[in-house]
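Notebook entry, structure prediction.
Reason for the run: the old model in the group folder had no record of what sequence produced it. Starting over properly, with the input documented here first.
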Amino acid sequence: MTRPEAKRAIAAFDQVRAILHGEWDPIGCGVPLDEYDSYAWPVLDLLQKKASRAEVEAYLRWAADEAMSSPVPEDRLASVLDKLMALAPE
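New structure, fully documented this time:
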């Protein structure tokens, strides 16, 4: 990976991280900024692979519902998906 590619990857990760931490936030109790990093990388990978909205939604539902046992309200999930899908490369 070249330096410009690495910078773009880090910037893209930071955007996904900010959305997951600031808006998705299944735990919702002032978690550290890096709390959802293990979920941000797979989301970024899905976006870079041009996965469908349904695939990204399925992953986020699994992460919140199954991995954390903290479902996210439908309206909040829809808003998060809108923002994440806007990051996907064309």
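Summary: The chain has four helices and no strands.
The old model has been moved to the deprecated folder.
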